[in-house]
Design goal:
The complex is a heterodimer. By secondary structure, chain A is mainly α. Helix content of chain A is 49%, strand content 0%. Chain B contains 15 helices and eight strands. The chains are: A mainly alpha, B alpha/beta.
Chain lengths: 197, 316
């Protein structure tokens, strides 16, 4: 196993992760582990450990976080947040940790495939609009129960929805994530043999 | 940290509203259109007038939680949708999807408490004449069902006698921590509603377990995490002899219903437990025609359930 050098540690990691100031109370973490005890993913794959991830973010251990596969396991169910005695919003932390990983080329395969649906939703004002066949199925189902054949979303709504993604720069951020930049993930930052892709 | 966690529906909602703004859910109007129909019909029969608006868009929360969007856009989308309700109707917003509820509550909380987010969102949506104040409340229709439970009980014409129903609460309502109707670990208000409909509520071990679809919708860890998680949940429901599962989130409904054939293909189950929205179950018990409840959209057939209840599936 290669020796860990200090260039893998970053004192500013927490600030870099919490770029939108959404989890300003992370340093209040008691390391009590209630998050992990209530995590359905940790129950299934115990190497995934929200308490340890918080600890690593505060300690600045980039090597154990950014290229790990484990940070992609969170389901965003928010049961960790529900039970946290100091109300740390772990899902918002995870969301931002993943931004940082993506920008460094890790985990793109978990997000880039969703872009197809995201770009379509920017035109439709609805998310997960299927292709033509699926659309026909929905229209038949809706017509059978006497509601309008398609959910009523106005042209105005579609236009403004799309513009918001354009004008905030969100769309550009997404377009900049390219699969070709993908770097390989490590299976587990705890170094244990765990399942996954 | 010092707020009350669990409050009564009277504290939460107060008087039964005469009119509400109903927020359209993408999944609820496309994957399971019967959900939206049932919510509208049930509340209509209970005397609550529904207002919807074609200018409302997707809440945009789902892809945000996948880290697919950066937050600036969903914050502005939330401000726009809520400003539209505030300015045009002055009504409270009711949502029938736990996902929309959680995302809108969370994003509006950020808008209301972080001035830079609100200013930036208002600057952006101001070009189209919107201004978000942050005054109107955001509720889930399940809260209204609970407030109206006696009225629902009185209107049951097709009691669910002999039907073993299990509630799936989902995560994003009870994860709100404060000012919600029940305890996050051991909620029982759905079971009370099922009982009011004449059904037999069934407690199963993994009743509070996540559906697994909260992130990724099959893009992330479907085989390694989502499916084993669902199998664990459905195994525990099967062990208790559950005949029907109810949800209050069309997203959870997709996971629990659509994945059952895939699970069987991997050697889990088979389960054959149909999954419908709680609103659809209330509508069924209140005597709304089965053919108009949109059960044809379901992967796992409702046929067995309708047989137990002695209702023919009058297909349209």
């Amino acid at each position: 196993m290669p020796r860990e050098y200090d260039d893998k540690w970053d004192d500013q990691l927490y600030q870099k992760v919490d770029r939108y100031d959404l989890v300003t109370n992370l340093e209040q973490c008691l390391q009590c582990g209630k998050c992990t005890g209530n995590c359905p993913v940790a129950a299934l794959t115990p190497s995934y450990n929200p308490r340890a991830i918080i600890n690593d973010i505060l300690a600045g251990s980039t090597a154990r976080l950014l290229d790990s596969e484990e940070i992609w396991r969170c389901l965003w169910c928010a049961n960790c947040y529900r039970v946290c005695p100091v109300d740390i919003h772990y899902p918002l932390l995870m969301m931002q940790l993943r931004y940082l990983a993506l920008e460094k080329g890790y985990g793109l395969k978990y997000v880039v495939p969703i872009n197809k649906y995201a770009f379509r939703s920017m035109e439709e004002g609805l998310t997960f609009v299927p292709g033509q066949k699926g659309r026909e199925r929905i229209m038949a189902l809706r017509a059978a129960i006497d509601v309008s054949p398609w959910p009523e979303v106005s042209e105005r709504a579609k236009k403004e929805f799309g513009e918001i993604f354009e004008q905030t720069g969100c769309r550009r951020w997404m377009e900049n994530l390219e699969m070709e930049q993908e770097k390989p993930l490590r299976l587990s930052f705890l170094g244990r043999g765990v399942i996954d892709e | 940290m010092n707020e009350e966690r669990v409050i009564s529906p009277e504290q939460r909602i107060g008087q039964v509203p005469e009119r509400i703004f109903l927020f359209r859910s993408c999944t609820g109007s496309m994957e399971y259109p019967g959900t939206e129909k049932a919510v509208r019909d049930v509340l209509g029969q209970l005397g609550v007038e529904i207002v919807m608006d074609a200018d409302q868009t997707c809440c945009s929360g789902y892809i945000l939680t996948c880290s697919g969007y950066t937050p600036e856009a969903p914050l502005a989308v939330t401000a726009r949708n809520l400003a539209l309700v505030e300015q045009r109707y002055g009504l409270e917003t009711y949502v029938y999807c736990n996902g929309c509820f959680g995302y809108i509550r969370e994003l509006s909380h950020l808008l209301n408490h972080v001035p830079k987010f609100k200013d930036e969102a208002n600057r952006l949506i101001g070009q189209w004449g919107y201004h978000y104040q942050g005054e109107a409340g955001i509720y889930h229709v399940q809260e209204l069902y609970y407030l109206l439970i006696d009225k629902i009980r009185a209107r049951v014409v097709q009691p669910l006698r002999g039907l073993r129903v299990a509630a799936h609460y989902g995560c994003h309502y009870l994860a709100q921590q404060y000012g919600i109707l029940d305890d996050g670990d051991l909620p029982t208000f759905h079971e009370k509603i099922i009982e009011a409909l004449g059904g037999t509520p069934v407690f199963y071990k993994e009743r509070r377990m996540c559906c697994g679809y909260a992130v990724g919708r099959g893009f992330t860890h479907k085989e390694s995490i989502v499916q084993p998680l669902l199998a664990r949940k459905l195994d525990s429901a099967k062990d208790e002899g559950v005949q029907l599962i109810t949800t209050v989130c069309p997203g959870c409904n997709v996971a629990l219903d659509r994945e059952q054939p895939n699970l069987a293909g991997r050697g889990f189950g088979p389960y054959n437990i149909p999954v419908i929205d709680l609103g659809q179950l209330i509508a069924l018990a209140m005597g709304m025609p089965v053919g108009k409840l949109g059960f044809n959209a379901n992967t796992v057939s409702l046929g067995g359930v309708l047989n137990i209840l002695g209702i023919g599936e009058d297909k349209p």
